[in-house]
Amino acid sequence: MTPEELLTTTRAVRKRLDLTREVPLELVKRALTIGLQAPSGSNRQQWQWLVVTDAEQRAALSEVYRRGWREYLELQPGQRADDSATYQRIRSSSEYLAEHMQDVPVLLVPCLDTGSAELPAGNQAGLWASLLPAVWNYMLAARNLGLGTVWTTLHLRHEKEAAEVLGLPDTVHQGALVPTAYYTGTGFKPAERKPVDDVLHFDRW
């Protein structure tokens, strides 16, 4: 793929994750090695990465995720009434992922080790900017290697329980949950987005 094709066709893959095919850990490590080329504030590289493949661990973490998913739905009464094709497609694929999360062969949990049980006050954008670009780099690299991914965070509604499942120290804070698997089918294409001129400002709002 050209760089432009990679950047415009790396989509959230849910229903097209291949739940029957094992993913070699070396492939995950290769994608993650590429991901770690992302920038890190002051080059601190406080990131830590959990690759969850054990069936019992996946099941336990998936149950935490499903609880967050159900609570999210309860808080979106307006969206539940949205009958647009786009929303219904997203809702259907998200529900499928919640039901099958434990069957995804690899669950990647990117984290920051801040050295403190409490997140520092103030510049949260700067803090998470030292992790999240590496997560996206990983997802791009995975796509280039034939793997599908999707960025999820609903398990963080119960972050402490997820931390207990994963055995995380108090100083380690989760940033996402990235299901990873080979994908089925083809046809990935750019998503519909607002025209750039509708969201672009020069000099002042």
Automatic annotation (TrEMBL):
Residues 10-172 form the Nitroreductase domain. InterPro entries: Nitroreductase, Nitroreductase-like. Keywords: Oxidoreductase. It comes from the Bacteria. Pfam families: Nitroreductase (PF00881). PANTHER family: NAD(P)H NITROREDUCTASE YDGI-RELATED (PTHR43673), NADH DEHYDROGENASE_NAD(P)H NITROREDUCTASE XCC3605-RELATED (PTHR43673:SF10). Belongs to the nitroreductase family. This is Nitroreductase family protein. It comes from Amycolatopsis minnesotensis.
